[in-house]
Amino acid sequence: MPRDLLLHVRMIANFFNKPLSDELINRIAEQCTFKNMKKYDISYRIRNEESSLLLRKGVVSGWKNYFTPELNERFEKEVLEKLKGTGLEFDFEL
């Protein structure tokens, strides 16, 4: 289990002031891995259609396979404009 995933689960639990046992934190973290989420992909559909699946391959920069240059430009214009001043930053490349 990735240590940072365990740390994030613990941080979220602490934020909500919900003390959790190490065993429960491990279970939550395991269920939140991409591999396990993919097993139950029906839970990650917008509609009950194959094309509505929200989980993809889990590959860095995989969004480039779905965004046309025009869609990417629209995303940057509309979404990133709305996020200005929020403190949220996106790094689309590693």
Automatic annotation (TrEMBL):
Keyword Transferase: yes
One Pfam family recorded for the sequence: Sulfotransfer_1
The keyword Transferase is assigned to this record: yes
Keyword vocabulary terms for this entry: Transferase
Ranges of residues in domain Sulfotransferase: 3-87
Cleaved signal peptide residues: none
PANTHER family tied to this protein: SULFOTRANSFERASE SULT (PTHR11783)
Homology family: Belongs to the sulfotransferase 1 family.
Name used for this protein in its record: Sulfotransferase domain-containing protein
Native source organism of the sequence: Porites lobata
